[in-house]
Amino acid sequence: MSGTPAQPPGFNELIHAPTRLSLMSLLSASNWMEFGLLRDTMELTDSALSKQLGTLEDAGLVQLQRDGVGRGKRVRVRLTPQGRQAFDVHVGALRAIVERSATNVWDRAHQDETA
């Protein structure tokens, strides 16, 4: 797996979209989350949340569990093992970007002082 300074190894474009990154972050902190709690926490409509979860589910990153029928229908969501690993690796890639940027700025600032 290779990367560039802007996108180090493990950077995941699918996860990085702001709404999906927030969803993955919330889901990483729990075993299962109710659809309604995710919707309310993220301040999304049902359709917007469903679309984002569908994208993550198609990629194998989340699992949806549907129980009941009609108004009593309950949907719960969790990260799959693949999703948890992909999220952790993506967070590591984001940290690498931040750390590299901070180091480069520090090094350049001190090179200018000694020149």
From TrEMBL:
It comes from Pseudonocardia endophytica. Pfam families: HTH_34. The keyword DNA-binding applies. Residues 10-100 form the HTH arsR-type domain. InterPro entries: HTH_ArsR_DNA-bd_dom (IPR001845), WH-like_DNA-bd_sf (IPR036388), WH_DNA-bd_dom (IPR027395), WH_DNA-bd_sf (IPR036390). Keywords: DNA-binding. One of its GO terms (molecular function) is DNA-binding transcription factor activity. This is Winged helix DNA-binding protein.
